[in-house]
């Protein structure tokens, strides 16, 4: 029994300093994780002139992010969208930098389309008339290729509709622009 105890103690203490000194183990450095641009896209790659568009991006393991051309501030994020307003076709490059000096980039082309049509200052001379009384509905537009307005007589030079409604009538104006865009509005005239 005595012999068994000594053997166990000796086996448990093989590196206790009685034998040759143990070799130091090599320090294991954590493996650098590569920086990566995980996503870079536009909500719409054709942005109407003068209207902000949105670019969205995501990065992993980045300490710094740059956008070229610098149209907005960017920083490391898993998922983020930024507002841009290009004046012409633009190629954006998003570059993510890692702490170890590595980098990853993605590019994206954005084109600029026609400015959206705008209908505004929609007014009527009277919102309530007797049957057969004349009404005048006028409005202003910009960035349009054509306008449809009615019912009644539409004077394109003045952007006004004249009519003599016999019953309550809804007058609708639709402004059409480039790239199949449109803006519209209505005015209701009640007949007593």
Polypeptide structure, described:
Helices cover 6% and strands 49% of the residues. The protein has one helix and 15 strands. The protein has one helix spanning 2-12; strands spanning 36-42, 46-48, 53-60, 64-68, 80-84, 90-97, 103-113, 118-124, 128-129, 135-142, 146-150, 153-155, 160-163, 169-176, 182-191. The strands form four sheets. A four-stranded mixed sheet has the order 2-7-6-4, with no helix packed on it. Strand 6 and strand 7 (103-113) form a beta hairpin.
CATH topology of the largest domain: Immunoglobulin-like
Largest sheet: 4 strands, mixed
Residue fraction in strands: over 45%
CATH top level label of the largest domain: Mainly Beta
CA-atom Rg in angstroms: 36 Å
Number of helices, where a helix is a run of at least 4 consecutive DSSP H or I residues: 1
- CATH homologous superfamily of the largest domain? SoxY domain
**Low-pLDDT stretches:** 1-15
Number of strands: 15
Backbone structural class: mainly beta
Q: What's the overall average pLDDT, rounded?
A: 88
Percentage of residues in helical conformation = under 10%
